[in-house]
Amino acid sequence: MKKQIFLLLPLALLSLIPGQRSRHEFENGIVKCSYETSRMRIDGPYISYYKNGQKKSEGQFENNYRTGKWSVWDSTGRLRVQRIYENPFVFKAIVPAAPSDKPVALLNIPRYYPEYNAKGYIDYFNLKERMVVWATRIWRFIPESNNELLFEKDRLFNLLQKNMLLKNITPYKDDEYRTELTADAISSKDMKVIGYRIKEDSFFDNDRFVSETRIIGICPVMQNTLTQDTIDLYWIYMPELREYLAQEKIQSKGFPAKVKSLDDLFFYRCFSGIICKESNIFDRKISDYKTEKQSIIKEAERIGIGMIETEHDLWISFTQ
Fold this sequence. Notes:
By secondary structure, this protein is α+β, with helices and mostly antiparallel strands. It has one domain (11-317). The chain has helices spanning 102-105, 148-151, 155-165, 238-246, 262-267, 286-289, 293-317, and strands at residues 22-27, 31-38, 41-50, 55-62, 65-73, 79-87, 90-95, 132-143, 171-172, 191-205, 210-224, 230-232, 235-237, 274-278. Residues 1-19 have low confidence and may be disordered.
């Protein structure tokens, strides 16, 4: 197999990212915000402001997902949206108030509740392409730091290898999933897993008025213990993998009670990942146009905050 050199993010950069709870301030001339992270995940109070100083949004995150009460104002200070989240996908609308007319009220019943299927994992909402009003594609790197459960005794890697050899899942050369690889063509001799790359789609669903992120694929990143070279070993299509992730049960006090398997861990985004690339016309990774370590971190932050604030803008636009 032709080696693909891993150039997404210098590994030395990982030491610059805090592992414990910390406070962050971000400003780019358009929006200013403050937020907290815990174990590299957005977790805790979030508040943002317009460039004229008016408060734009305020709410809470838990493990990268919105929770509890969220409020969004327009640039004049008028409260435009207020909702209380029951879970990351279901909320109660407070502002604007839902109509009480029975025919209209039926439309305000939540369209989706996370439920397990017969294979043991939670089915996604049946998304309609015409209802997607905004979308972006993101690539992240999942390091060992703050993701110990995935790396303990090579837990995730062994699961991938086992199911690949059993032909339950298909390995691909790259994240386009066009060229299949055979087990004989894949060698992990003298290799150790140092991280995972994931490819995911984030989008705003106008059917439910929420943003959602779904992982498309995952790739073990290996380092040769002799030469120290790094390669992308193979890509696995995530929808094909989910039932086998669901079979790997989790018992850890470090996770919410609802996270019972490795699939739950990914579904509820209880992992730490670093944004390395956002879809763009030049197909460039962040490290292709940002060279200094701190500027790479800031660009990844800009992309992440931009996704949050884009959702706020969409909330407002649909209340006009």
